[in-house]
């Protein structure tokens, strides 16, 4: 905890230095309220994002990231006379920014993980611009409408499952979501100009950027960038019947196992096990997550209110967090933030460093840990009845509705068992 606080204070100090605050000088007006357009510099690409600032002073300011229909709110701190520090909620990262004399904002997206040496992403932002990629009226008329369901073939050094793209185009405006076996990209927003298309998304974790070309045969070729180094090429073909592998069959118990077993510390350092009296005779939901993982926080935002509504029906839940630092003090901070934000009333345990191999070692009954999140449902006899890999949020439409319908049906049936 001391290490994290030290790094946070270093970040705040750097922001203060950016502000060049001088004692006795009057404070400058706060950032203008209204819509803004930001642009990250990602390798050789410019990745736009949109946000809104509300509040005439830092004490009441709210920073809202806009992605299609999605809105994510963050707290704003002003350090010095003309600098901002915007923590990305449960993600241990922040936008560190300087308010220029002309009103423009410049800065960087910075990791706050102790001893993490990842590169920061520089950005700038301009007030009053609500478009994504190009000002209205400057875009080239689209040659094609790429609305629909797409089979995206991924090219990678290691075997990588295909992905599914759900796209919706209205004129030049393009929105959509990319589904994979680990979850979804969250909502993306972009444009189609001529025979090219672009999409971007920024909700707190590292930004996503997709750029591609629509070929004469109406297939797609392009590249998907996740953060700084994770760039993958893809081909796409429209296919209304394409589906991902069944998420209920990807992770399973090894032969000879019927139960899951683990002993891990909670945020106070007390060891917790499924064999504890608290869980005997209960239906238990085990959620394997990380606060750095957007699909995990989306899954938590679904599970926590469901549990709070149903906890008196003979059901318990446990979240096992694998974090970006193998340190209980650090995990107490990050997972504590998650607990507070989503009003989590079930046990939260610390599994260790965020690594699928480590998670597999801590949960040896599983064939492998394929994705964060993974959700395991255990019946009243202590036997594993269902394992779901990944999570698809509301933006995925029918996929999300089907997940919720099956969740409620299956949990109702298990809770009803004697």
Automatic annotation (TrEMBL):
- Residue ranges occupied by any Thioredoxin domain in the UniProt entry: 253-416
Query: What is the residue range of the signal peptide feature?
Result: 1-23
The domain of life is Bacteria
Q: Which PROSITE patterns match?
A: THIOREDOXIN_2
Query: Is the Signal keyword given for this protein?
Result: yes
**Keywords, comma-separated and alphabetical:** Signal
Q: Give the GO molecular function terms.
A: antioxidant activity; oxidoreductase activity
Concerning InterPro entries, the annotation shows: AhpC/TSA, Thioredoxin-like_sf, Thioredoxin_domain, Thioredoxin_ResA/DsbE_sf
The name this protein carries in UniProt is Alkyl hydroperoxide reductase
């Amino acid at each position: 905890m001391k290490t994290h606080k030290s790094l946070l204070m270093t970040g705040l100090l750097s922001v203060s230095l950016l502000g060049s605050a001088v004692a006795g000088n009057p404070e400058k007006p706060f950032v203008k309220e209204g819509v803004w357009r930001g642009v990250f510099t990602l390798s050789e690409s410019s990745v736009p994002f949109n946000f809104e600032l509300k509040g005439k002073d830092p004490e009441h300011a709210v920073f809202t990231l806009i992605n299609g229909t999605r809105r994510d709110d963050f707290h704003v701190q002003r350090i010095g006379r003309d600098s901002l520090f915007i923590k990305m909620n449960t993600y241990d990262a922040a936008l560190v920014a300087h308010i220029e004399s002309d009103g423009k904002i410049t800065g960087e997206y910075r990791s706050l993980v102790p001893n993490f040496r990842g590169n920061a992403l520089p950005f700038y932002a301009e007030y009053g611009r609500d478009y994504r990629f190009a000002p209205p009226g400057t875009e080239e008329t689209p040659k094609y409408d790429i609305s629909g369901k797409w089979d995206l073939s991924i090219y990678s050094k290691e075997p990588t499952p295909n992905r599914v793209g759900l796209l919706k185009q209205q004129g030049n405006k393009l929105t959509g979501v990319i589904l994979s076996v680990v979850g979804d990209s969250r909502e993306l927003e972009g444009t189609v100009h001529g025979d090219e298309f672009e999409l971007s998304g920024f909700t707190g974790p590292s930004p996503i950027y997709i750029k591609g070309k629509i070929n004469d045969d109406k297939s797609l070729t392009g590249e998907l960038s996740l953060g700084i180094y994770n760039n993958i090429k893809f081909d796409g073909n429209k296919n209304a019947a394409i589906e991902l592998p069944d998420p209920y069959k990807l992770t399973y118990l090894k032969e000879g196992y019927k139960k899951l077993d683990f002993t891990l510390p909670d945020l106070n350092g007390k060891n917790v096990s499924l064999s504890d009296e608290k869980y005997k005779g209960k239906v238990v939901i085990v959620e394997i997550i990380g606060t750095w993982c957007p699909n995990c926080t989306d899954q938590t935002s679904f599970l926590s209110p469901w549990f709070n509504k149903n906890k008196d029906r003979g059901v318990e839940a446990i979240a096992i967090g694998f974090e970006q630092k193998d340190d209980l003090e650090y995990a107490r901070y990050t997972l504590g933030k998650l607990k507070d934000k989503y009003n989590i009333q079930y046990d939260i345990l610390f599994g260790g460093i965020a690594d699928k191999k480590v998670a597999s070692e801590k949960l040896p009954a599983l064939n492998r840990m394929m994705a964060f999140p993974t959700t395991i449902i255990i019946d009243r006899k202590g036997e594993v009845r269902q394992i779901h890999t990944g999570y698809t949020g509301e933006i995925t439409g029918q996929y999300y509705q089907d997940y919720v319908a099956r969740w409620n049906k299956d949990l109702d049936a298990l809770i009803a068992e004697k």
